[in-house]
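U., I forgot to send this yesterday:
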Amino acid sequence: EPTVRTELMEQIPPIAIFLQESRPKFPTAFFEYLMPIVVRYLTDVNNQVRKAGQEALLILLEQDLIAQSDIENKVCPILLDLSAPDSDDEYKVEAVNVICKMASMLSRTTVEHMLLPRFCELCSDGKLFQVRKICAANFGDICNAVGQEATERLLIPKFFELCSDSVWGMRKACAECFMAVSYTTSPEVRRSKLSPLFISLISDTCRWVRQAAFQSLGPFISTFANPSSAGLYIREDGTLSIRPSTQDVNSNSCQPNNNITLMSSSTNAT
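Result:
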C-alpha cells in the first residue's frame, strides 16, 4: 500500500538520528537496513512514495548521517541512472531536482567527479524543457558547489546556452541567478564574458526576462567590487549582504562614506 510506504519513509530520518545517537548499541543498523530502503524507494512506482524518499534522503544528507562511501556507491549511481537520457521523463525531472538540491551538501570532489558531468548534459536536454529549467534555476548553487575552476571550464559554456534558450522562462531563471554565477568566477571572466551576456539578457525580447535582469543588475555590479574594501559577501542562502566594519560595530553608527567606498571599489574593478 503506497500510503504505508510513504509513512515509513517519513519515519526514516528520526529513526536514523536515534541510531546515530545510540551507535555503540546499533553500529551498523542504519547502513544495513535503512539505507537500502531509502535507495530502493527512490525508484518506487508511486510518485508520493518517491517524493517522501527524496525528502528523507535530503534530510539525511543535511544531518550528515550518510557515509561518504554510501553516497558515492549507492546514492549517486541511482540518481545518475534516473537522470540518464533514456530514463522516464517523470523520473528524470525528479532526479535532476534532487541532484541540484544535494550538491551543496556533498564534498566538492564528489560533486565535480560524479554529478557535474551529468548536470552539464542535462543543461542541454532537448527533450524536456522542465529539466533545463531546473538546471537554470539552480545554476548558481552548482557553481558554488564546484568552485571557480570547474565553473569557468565546464559550466560557463552551458550557462551561455541556457541564457540563449528558446524558452523565455529559462532565460529568466538565468537572469535571476546571474549574481551567484558571477560571484564564483574571476574578475576577467566577469568583464570579458559575463558582462556582454548580461547585456543580452537586459535587452531580451521578453519583458519578463528584462525585468528579472534589471532586478539582478545591482547584485551583478556588486560582484565587481573588492570584497576587502566593500565588505560584500554571499550568505549561505545565496543572498548578497554587507559585512559591517569593526569601526561600525564599535560605534553602532552609519559611516557616511560607505556608499562611496562601494562605488569606487566597483569602478576600480571594472
